[in-house]
Records
---
Amino acid sequence: MPAYTDHRDEHLRRLRRIEGQVRGLQRMVDEDVYCIDVLTQVSAATRALQSFALELLSEHMSGCVADAARAGTAEGEAKVQEATDAIARLVRS
Amino acid sequence: MPAYTDHRDEHLRRLRRIEGQVRGLQRMVDEDVYCIDVLTQVSAATRALQSFALELLSEHMSGCVADAARAGTAEGEAKVQEATDAIARLVRS
Amino acid sequence: MPAYTDHRDEHLRRLRRIEGQVRGLQRMVDEDVYCIDVLTQVSAATRALQSFALELLSEHMSGCVADAARAGTAEGEAKVQEATDAIARLVRS
Amino acid sequence: MPAYTDHRDEHLRRLRRIEGQVRGLQRMVDEDVYCIDVLTQVSAATRALQSFALELLSEHMSGCVADAARAGTAEGEAKVQEATDAIARLVRS
């Protein structure tokens, strides 16, 4: 079971809030709200998604480190590499 | 009327797709999908939001430059400053 | 002459400070400073580069808007497209 | 001794290359090179700094996971938290 399962309700609440932000953006575009104000909302939604990702990553790394402690080195290395790749995608997105 | 009104349908389609990605994230969390796969989807949604922002900004700048050409310098300067501030928020988000 | 020429000395001062930060990073690596502290300095240097880019872009857009006002629409459009492409590279870097 | 010590020469080479890029930027500003071309170089230097950071982080996490495996849980947790904070600074810079 993924490490984030304990926090599932909190994650779902966060994601529903982000979904609400994206629906808000649709309303803004539909009502011809001034472009710069739409962009401000896009930045807010982007930051919310990144915070969610960092939260998830933090939990994954706690779990990952714990698992790697119990498992052998090879599996631990593979998990670290996988996490590092995910971080690179976040940093570059 | 904002410069982006011409492309409103296209913008709304994009935003609905992003809303779908965020709902997909909820489903993934709900079904205990592996954390790294969730993170990959978060990166995809973040990039989609940024592409939308860049598209909007591009249209705004085309309109902004055109308006500044017709209006006087002071208004033009104010619009450039406003756009630059929005860009700074995007770069830092 | 580029729009940023007026601020050349200020830009050079900023860039020399960033060069100093990068040399500081070499010293840290050379002296086996703790990895997390090195990363904190990398983040500081990255932010300094982005601030420089945003400053340069802001000046370019002021000049760009002014030029586009004097020139015809086609040249103005090309300049806006060019600036937007540069912004996209910044947002994604 | 930090985990990155094995790769010190490679890190120093990378950082000297980045220092060269920043000095190149000074030359460009000094010679009034077109602003957009300067911005392209800033994006390249920023990406190079981020790649260096990701490399360093990857090594740190390999070391961190290995250390946490040998040490107790509390120290492991503290190291993961520290790494996550550094990642957050990278993602937001």
Note: Chain A touches chain C at residues 92 (CB under 8 Å).
---
Amino acid sequence: MASTTPHHGSPLLYLDDLSAGQRFTGGSRVVVDEAAIRAFAAQFDPQPFHLDPEAATETLFGQLVASGWHTAGVTMRLQVETIPIAGGLVGAAAAVEWPRPTLPGDVLRIEAEILEVRHSRSRPDRGLVRIVTETKNDRDEVVQVVTATIVVPRRPD
Amino acid sequence: MASTTPHHGSPLLYLDDLSAGQRFTGGSRVVVDEAAIRAFAAQFDPQPFHLDPEAATETLFGQLVASGWHTAGVTMRLQVETIPIAGGLVGAAAAVEWPRPTLPGDVLRIEAEILEVRHSRSRPDRGLVRIVTETKNDRDEVVQVVTATIVVPRRPD
């Protein structure tokens, strides 16, 4: 897996810096090749359509495709490299859709947008931010949409 | 990552064999050790609380914890070993919650239950099955709940 252009050096964003509609795209890309697809599958999703190009032709997909959880992992990496939230990206829940699979050789990138910023009543030092992230391949097709709620600290006084 | 007791040899289940309330537990276990947590994080979620036991003490978690997506990957492996669906486990969408993190040395297992079985009108050869899977550690604490909709073929005539 190759990856480029982390956000290291960008100023970290606190709850106070975030608002609905704010977008993050960044330049990070991850290439998902056949070896990476098979290695992930061997460890986490050992099914023929993720493991074996030949056996995959007999399945629903008709060819080798990445596990959806592999696409989710690559997306997380792109989020870490693209969205410079203070305290890190810590999710309590996520809703994931996979409109189409990631194919061998796909180059993935993300486009993220903040949907909602809520200050916590019980914990005034933090809040919850809802963010949607589309993962696209190099044909501009969406391979994943994940909507997550993350915990973000307020800027310390 | 060690893993035991796959379902290989169990008869494959078709849509006609499934109904709401049906449960799958199986004997599969996966040990998530510190090396596995750090290896997953280096590839997919490179944040201090997943990478570095020392740096993790300064974070929200106060110690090294597994990426939620690592817990999701381990859960997928346990599902593949526990739920013998014909055609494999193919999800179009999933809602994931992480009530608490997976810690180094945790031994994970799953308990799955079918929530709903819907026959497809447009594609009489298949249907959609909604299934909830709880992932528990060896202290019987829930580390993940994932609700997924999977595509399941009808038994061929």
Note: Confidence is low (pLDDT under 50) at residues 1-6 of chain A.
